[in-house]
Protein 1
Amino acid sequence: MSDRSAQLVLPISANPGATWSHWVSREVTGQVESFARALLDQGGTGFFLWASEGQGKSHFLQACCATKPSARYLPMESLLEYPPEAVLEHAENDTMVVVDDIHLIDGHRSWQEALFHCYNRCAETGTPFLASATQSPAGLKNVFADLQSRLSLLTTFKLPAWELDDFERLLGHLAHDRGLLLSDDVARYLTMRIQRRPLDAVNVIATIDESTLVEKRSPTIPFLKLLGL
């Protein structure tokens, strides 16, 4: 690594809870999970994962990174103000290159060009290139054509929206991790009142956990109503 990149301090932090053990598998996500695990075990070109905000893209990518300690995780939300050449220097020598929220490079030509060249270097070295976005590669209309073409070569998966039963199971899983016990009625109550996104589920369970500790009460429906839920 050059002196320039060695001195670059990047604001990158992974969520310690974003692991496979905390990932709630669904029948509709079985294909991408199997593909990712095969890639992690055997190698490959990579994949492109897309979904609307808050559906678990970052969790999925970080879970992949957690199994490859020397993977280069690149959350674009935190990196756009940094020089892309320095951030991506020698990335192809890492075990994986993982670009989270790649759609955010819209309007950032220098990042688009740098990621295009990074992708090509990864292809030459056989380094898997993983990316996520809120659109499919074809939907990245403002990304220059050469990069869009490269991203379109990746196997593409979409994380589907959560069905009611699966979301209730997710709420129960998150509550269990915090030592909370949600009844089926409480899980159904919450599912009908918040957006069915993992991000919202994490936030509401955190709120309930903190409130039950302070008030020394169980998470019943009357108590949740007092919290404004």
Protein 2
Amino acid sequence: MFLKNLVIALAILVVACAEKQEDAIKIGAMLPLTGDNSSYGVYCKNGMNLALEEFEKEYKLSAKIIFEDSAANPKTAVNAVNKLIKRDQVNIILGGMFSTTTMAIAPIAQENEIVLISPTAADENIPKIGKFIFSIYPSAAFEGKVMAEYLINSKSKQIGVFAQQTPVAEAIADSFIEQMNKLGKSIVFSATFPEKTKNFRNIIYTELMEKDIDALFISSYASEAGAFIRQVREYGFKGQIYSQSSLYDKKIIEDYGNFVDGVEITAPFFNSENKLNYLDEFRMKYLQKFGEEPNVWAAYGFDVASLALKSLKEAIQNKSKIEDVVLNSTLQGVTGETSFNPDRTVNKSLQIFKIENSEFIKVK
């Protein structure tokens, strides 16, 4: 009899666990976890996991995030997102971090009527894909405009522009040039270079060293921008260098040291040194869990997961459409306030930081 009751009890437990697993909120996350850009993905993943932990503590609900590695490769991302939708049957997808992967997977999410929210993709065409597609990161056009408006009050008069041949980098550069022209600043020349370029010496020699310029604006992923800055400094360029938010990462300082000292960049609202109570609380919890300070990519991972989890909870409780809940949400997060316009474009702010003595110092 005891054995029979034990078997029945175990069967009930298995069924209960299965039901709990079935009822769990399931989120799919598409991040670059290997390759040259893996540091972005690892920090973002950590932020998402911290948000999940906080959500489960606060609401006593079961939830999980299924992570897939995009390796920042659109083809890899497409295969992985199909798995998340068809096999894992997730309720919502977070990713990708880059616009190239996001633009590759967003049409699949739209076709399957699965809400997709990118934490950091900046291509302004992303929300145009359809009503299920969002990004919580400021657009590339907005970022270029912000830097131009900052630079207009600088002493720099003759400016050169280098842009990586990716949609977002070129969009930032184009917006920067357009706004500079409107404001009356002189753009002496602009040039582009292929993605994943690491040797810029020929470009620097042929395009830069014979030009009369006193400032450079570089729009590129961090690793290529760092290599470019190092090589242009080695060639003796002493003018001011400006760049974009991809450089807002301690790794750029670790890898390139004094070469990037003095560079000024656009950056999203988040500063781990900020003593606002909720930012300080986030920093302490992240430090306790992962043994290091969070950066902006961890912060965006935390906020995008918080938005997704709370939206799913509200949609389930109120029997609402998830896409409508996300669209009408206002999140007071560690990256600032996040809300959306009717066309799903995001309302966010940007700041200006300067790399000084191996630290990011806010200047505006």
